[in-house]
Please model this.
Amino acid sequence: MLLKLPQRAEEILNSMISEKIKGASYLAEKCVEFYIALIEENISNKEIVRLSNEIVRLFPTVAPIYNVSDHVMKLVREIDDKDVILKRLKDYLTEIQSAKSKTAEIFIKNIEIPSEVVFMTHSYSSAVLELFKKLSSMDISFEVILTESRPDFEGIHLANELEDLGIKYEIITDAQMGLMIKRADVVVVGADCITRRLDVINKAGTFLLALSANYYSVPFYVLAERFKFHPIINHGEELELMERELTVQGKAVRNILFDVTPSRLVTAILTERDIVKPL
Amino acid sequence: MLLKLPQRAEEILNSMISEKIKGASYLAEKCVEFYIALIEENISNKEIVRLSNEIVRLFPTVAPIYNVSDHVMKLVREIDDKDVILKRLKDYLTEIQSAKSKTAEIFIKNIEIPSEVVFMTHSYSSAVLELFKKLSSMDISFEVILTESRPDFEGIHLANELEDLGIKYEIITDAQMGLMIKRADVVVVGADCITRRLDVINKAGTFLLALSANYYSVPFYVLAERFKFHPIINHGEELELMERELTVQGKAVRNILFDVTPSRLVTAILTERDIVKPL
Model:
């Protein structure tokens, strides 16, 4: 489907396509690395533009891919010097890498957290993990209720990381979200894409957690670096949600990866720069 | 924990305890058979009363166990003749067995069903399956969206039955309930227990489906034979919900079997006799 890529670029792209656990922040980093590999291998601007269209189409719900590609397109159009472009891209990568930490700081600085608190989350978000890391070094006693996150079990992956950090956690099946929300003080999730109307595209099941939180008046926060905000898509209905094949006990099971949490169910979206409060 | 039981009664009890797929209607039948076995083996009334307390405690959320036990206690207290008791119990068993079919009939007679309709359900309910069976012999074109129902995969079991009946179906992961509800015209689920305030105790995840249906204004019907109505428990919060052990990729995962769907999220409860409409 894609033209012949330089080997390193192809390896990066394949790792992006096969990635099932790590979220959109990870894909954003990989995407910058992909373009760096293309430019280092002297791929022509015309080919880079063509490839960028392909890669954006491969990840329709992942706003960072759109934003990174858009950013790179502007750089290659405006700057002639390959070394300058590469320098700018490496700075951009550093910016992306540090954004989740800043987002966690914005949360800690602005959201009142009791000294004993039960968090709840769904799937795996590196920004959310960053928040838990920071909190674990503070004088806060907290535990995390997390979902196993079928079918790829991102929750088990998160649990392993929490265990390494010595953070108390409890894993539940996805179906128990509505039960366990009663024990939670606050929900934090990541996002793959924030639409212009502030709908949140995230791992399927996030909407169910938002509904549950809403029903029991538990605040529902989304950690989303600015590069996850889609500049064009207005609301979730405009998106074609990615799907992967899944077979359970010999039967085909639908496996749409993402769902849409309408803005009105979101208490606030936190970025590395600000807090976006839906109306 | 229990006293030594006659072999057949013990077999029946073990099959009830180990049953993971079939719902509360099945347990109701098995429970009557359990008491029939006790009486046939000349177990004393005193021992039967003791056993009934034990078995009710084993299945705290399953109203039919409470109701069947209560019914049997009255029979053994009021009637001296073993053969009369057995005759009455066998009639009672027939009544229980036919109730789900009558419940399906009440649904078909009273709920307006378009000639093309998409149903959605969660877990496995023999009353719901009975409804689909009846509809498949009528001039109605329908399909069923069903959840895989982690961790015991009752949905895969239901899918096998639908396949045998030639009914079109689509299986989704539990986490996609909030996505797929948009395609559904009507939700039908079973119940393990209906409280006095008409809260619905059913497989964990039912509450999430009810929240989703409510959000998108999809009617949410519960099929529950009268013996599923608990005469004492007022609302779901009074119940201790059963839990089983579960390990996923070496990690302990909470596995509470049931959740509570508050009455106000229920459009109507259909029984073999009537339609109960929450206020």
